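Hi X.,

You mentioned you wanted examples for the new student's onboarding notes, showing what a folding record looks like when two proteins sit in one file. Here is a clean example. The first protein comes first, with its sequence line followed by its structure tokens.
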Amino acid sequence: MMESGESFQGFVMKCARAFGACIDMRDEPMDVPIPDKFEPSDYSSKRLREAELEVSRLLAMNEAEQEIFGFERRAEAIASAERALAKDREENARLLEMEARVSEWVPPSDDHEELKSFMLQQISVSKNNDDYLAARIAQLKAQDPIEFFHGALSEAQRSIEYHQEQKAKDIERAIDRTLWVRLLRESIDEAAIK
């Protein structure tokens, strides 16, 4: 890791990539310098802006648009649940077919009976319970479409709150990382003078 003729400062800064403020740089090429100032991630800022736009879009809807939105969201939720139910039923059909084959199978010896029992047990625990999805579909069909609008609005508002908090944390983290590197550089500069 230490190169021939490398300075104390260079060695410290190379090692600093594995700690604290520079941990995100540990996989970067060694010739990428550690910055003097770290900038906050823009991820939360972008998501915050998207959530704000979504809230604005939803609040700008009149009652008829809210209802249409709710009908569309409800239809999407029902379709998604129906796809999941169909998938579960297909898996169950394959499991039932295998269960019938295992049940008909005659193990070659008494020592193999435990294998057959284990196979039947695995099939049993692998079966999907369709009751939840069937009940969920019925619940979705009975739900007032405007509830889907209000749910989307609440979700977008929660997203604003969450990303505001994350943005503040990102800013604080950037400040802390910048301070960490500044203190490190000051420390190694002082050590070099001695």
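Then the second protein repeats the pattern, sequence line and then tokens:
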Amino acid sequence: MIGKRSDARKNRAHLLSVARAMMQEGAITPSFNALAKRAGVGVGTVYRHFVDHQALLGGLAEEHLAELEALTARVRAENDPLVAIELLLRGTMALELKSPVIAQLLASPQSESREFMQQLTALEAIGESILARGRKAKVVRSDIRAKDLHRLVCGLDLAVRSGDKPAEAAARYVDIVLAGLRRPR
């Protein structure tokens, strides 16, 4: 039994390595057939490890998803809701710039992977709790919800990648979004 688990871990690691290489060569998300062929395995092996493309992206982004979870823990500990929202937006944008796979995951959050959907639900719940604190303190617009932040982050990622100097653009666009999130006086 231990040998099979060890082989499964090796197969999964190999598939992720091959998928990373394919993405570095320009593939947005490799098809399972192309991934299987390139990895020298049957397509069934790919499906045994990844139920859908979102699960594959989740595997490719595991370390960055852990960073995102750590970010949300820091954000949740921040007492000032505006500072918390700023930390969340800037931190998420930094992760998306570092790992475009994070952006892909957040942009199409439908998956057969229960684990990924649980992570996404937990992240949105944290975002909603931060926004609720901001609404209660009357520093955040009353009509903003976590789903809005989710969409704004996806839009920001697209915007910063459409030109040069994405890190500079991200800082500027986050400033603009933060101004729009504040409750009007």
